[in-house]
Known about the structure:
With about 220 residues, the chain is of the alpha/beta class. About 35% of the residues lie in helices and about 25% in strands. The strands form 2 sheets. The protein has an 8-stranded mixed sheet with strand order 3-2-1-4-5-6-7-11. A 3-stranded antiparallel sheet has the order 8-9-10.
Amino acid sequence: MARPLRVAALASGRGSNLAALIAARDAGRLPIEFTLVGSDRAQAGALGVATAAGIPTLALNPKDYPSRAAFDAALFDRIAQSGAELLVLAGFMRIVDAAVVSAWEGRAINVHPSLLPKYRGLHTHRRCLEAGDAEHGASVHYVTAELDGGPVVAQARIAVRPGDTEADLAERLLVEEHKLLPAVVGAIAMGRLRWQDGPVFDEAPLTRPLDLGELL
Length: 216
C-alpha cells in the first residue's frame, strides 16, 4: 500500500474544514498523514481541533516579526521542516508574501467560499446576495501570489433561495466545503490530481473546474 501523503494545514479560525479532513482520514477515505497545523492566532479553534487529534501544532504571532515577508518566511520554513508534501490553507486569513508562495507552487491549495473568479477576498456571501446571483459556491484552487487567483481545480454549488441571508448561505455552503476539500485532497493523495506546469487530472490537463460529483 502506498505511503500516506504528508499534509500540513494553516488556519486562522475555528477549524471546521480541518475537522472535515481529519474525519475523512479517520473514516479511511483519505490516505494522508498530518505533519503540522499552524496558525497566526494562538487562540484559533483549529489548533484545539488539531491537538485533540494528536497533530503537532504551531502558532506564530505576526507582531513578533519585522515584516509580513519575514513572518511568512518563518511560518513556511516550519511547514517545510515538518516534511509536508502538500499545504492546505483551510481558512487562513492572511495574504502570503509572493516570494514565499512561489516556493510552494503546485504544492499548496486553498478553499475559498465563492465560485471563483467571482468574489475574491472577503464578504463573499454578502457580495453574492447583493449581486442577485442565482447560485453560490465554494472553490478549491492552487495557491499563487495572486489573491484567490490560482488555477481552480474543483467547485461545489448551492442555489440561492428567496430570503436567504449571509448566515443562511454560509451555513449551507459550509456543508459543501466539508465535502469539497477532502475530495480534492483525496484526489491529490491518490495521484489523480497533480501539478505539472498546471493542474493535471487523470493524466489530462485540467481545462475547467471539476464539479464535486466528479471527485466522489
